[in-house]
């Protein structure tokens, strides 16, 4: 794909959760993830990327029920990942080379670098999530490993959150002996979460991550791709359920005028200050207190808000 991005980007993303479970922990009976030392809520980077993937798939789904060219997903429900690599082999005319290997070193010998490059080029062109996030493709037929330009951190709540285990009832039973059954639902009353994103222009050259891909990423996060677009649904809307009610609240983007970057990301993130408020029950408890320092920006860095 042409028109790959030529600038580095870093961003701060704020979203909140109300009376629901933003990211259940399978090691804790699906209770909301917590930092046990600070009691701040956590949402994994995997959960955030899952929402981005789902949004892209729905946004690019055509009337025939298939995604537009270049916007299919490598990682999606009920997909056998090695089948995608096999499809790349078929499309490029390369052998599948699925001989048994006793070690990663032996497995790498099964596929010459020039073949791996051809397979990765085909996979990047077909799958949005490989262009954006990269993928481990060294399984099965072996297409190597590819690091993606878009990296997203864990999200952490600004204040400690209260994890609740709520009892619920059902008036019909699963068999004749039980007229009413009890159940449980894990939730937090409210939490404002913050995560950081990093977009590498150098890695974008390897995967073909384009300006249009970038706009789609921002549209997934906050509902629009740039300042000239009107707002639409974000990735949070298709994911709403009785157990999950999340909403995007702010996206602050730092655009560098170079591929490598003009300032350290952590210093730019310090310009977005979200003070703790203690007990919060809505974004209004934070909104007036959020500070974005635009003074004396490093040369070659532009700051903008899309939400």
Please provide a written account of the structure.
It is globular and about 60 Å long. The mean pLDDT is 91. The strands form four sheets. Strands 1, 4, 7, 8, 9, 10, 11 and 14 form an eight-stranded antiparallel beta sheet that branches. A two-stranded antiparallel sheet has the order 2-3. A two-stranded antiparallel sheet has the order 5-6. By secondary structure, the chain is of the alpha+beta class. It has two domains: 1-44 and 154-307, no CATH class; 46-148, no CATH class. It has helices at residues 45-59, 81-92, 104-109, 113-126, 128-133, 201-207, 211-222, 265-269, 284-287, and strands spanning 9-20, 24-25, 31-32, 40-43, 134-136, 145-147, 150-152, 155-160, 164-170, 181-199, 246-256, 272-273, 291-292, 301-305. Helix 1 crosses helix 7 (211-222).
Summarize the structure.
With 307 residues, this protein is α+β, with helices and mostly antiparallel strands.
Multimeric state of these chains?
Answer: single chain
Mean pLDDT: 91
Helical proportion, percent range: 25-40%
Strand proportion, as a percent range, falls in 25-35%
Largest beta-sheet details: 8 strands, antiparallel
- End-to-end separation in angstroms reads 29 Å
Count of individual helical segments: 9
What sort of overall outline do the alpha carbons produce when their principal axes are compared? globular
Rg is: 22 Å
């Amino acid at each position: 794909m042409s028109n790959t991005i030529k600038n580095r980007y870093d961003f701060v993303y704020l979203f909140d959760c109300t009376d629901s479970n933003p990211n259940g922990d399978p090691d804790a009976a699906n209770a909301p993830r917590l930092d046990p030392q600070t009691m701040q809520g956590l949402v994994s980077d995997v959960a955030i990327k899952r929402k981005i993937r789902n949004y892209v798939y729905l946004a690019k789904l055509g009337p025939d029920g298939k995604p537009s060219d270049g916007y299919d997903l490598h990682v999606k429900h009920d997909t056998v990942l090695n089948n995608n690599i096999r499809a790349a082999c078929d499309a490029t005319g390369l052998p599948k080379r699925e001989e048994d290997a006793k070690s990663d070193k032996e497995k790498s010998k099964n596929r010459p670098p020039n073949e791996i490059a051809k397979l990765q080029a085909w996979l990047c062109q077909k799958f949005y999530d490989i262009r954006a996030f990269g993928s481990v493709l060294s399984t099965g037929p072996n297409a190597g490993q590819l690091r993606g330009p878009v990296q997203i951190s864990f999200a952490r709540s600004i204040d400690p959150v209260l994890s609740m285990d709520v009892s619920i009832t059902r008036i019909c039973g699963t068999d004749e002996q039980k007229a009413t059954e009890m159940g449980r639902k894990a939730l937090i009353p409210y939490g404002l979460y913050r995560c950081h994103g990093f977009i590498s222009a150098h890695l974008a050259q390897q995967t073909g991550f384009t300006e249009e891909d970038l706009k789609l990423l921002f549209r997934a996060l906050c509902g629009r791709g740039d300042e000239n677009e009107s707002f639409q649904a974000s990735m949070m809307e298709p994911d709403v359920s009785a157990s999950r009610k999340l909403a995007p609240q702010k996206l602050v983007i730092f655009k560098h005028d170079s591929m490598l970057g003009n300032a350290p990301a952590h210093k730019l993130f310090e310009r977005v200050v979200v003070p703790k408020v203690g007990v919060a029950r809505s974004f209004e408890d934070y909104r007036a207190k959020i500070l974005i320092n635009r003074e004396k920006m490093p040369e070659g860095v532009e700051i903008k808000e899309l939400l």
